[in-house]
């Protein structure tokens, strides 16, 4: 995902981030995926009627993957 920001020096393309920025973006992305798996694990513990009431589909959640909380 490329973003563009306007700075005092003009337009700076998001595709030219340095090493630190790429590492930070990847770390945030990995933590988001981990959090999504934890949430999916909880949602899969709910019954189908509750999932449907909240707008989730069990097969979709199972496809995305889940993870239980370690402690």
Q: How would you characterize this protein structure?
A:
The chain is mainly alpha-helical. It has one domain. It is 56% helix and 11% strand. It has helices at 19-44, 48-54, 58-64, and strands at 4-7, 10-13. It has a two-stranded antiparallel sheet. Strand 1 (4-7) and strand 2 (10-13) form a beta hairpin. The protein is elongated, with a radius of gyration of 18 Å. The model has no long low-confidence stretch (mean pLDDT 81).
Structural class: mainly alpha
> If strands are numbered along the chain, what order do they take across the biggest sheet?
1-2
Q: Tell me, what's the shape?
A: elongated
Mean pLDDT: 81
**Cα distance spanning the termini:** 34 Å
Quaternary organisation of the protein chains? single chain
Helicity range of the residues? 55-70%
Radius of gyration: 18 Å
Number of helices: 3
State the low-pLDDT regions, or none.
none
| Domains (count) | 1
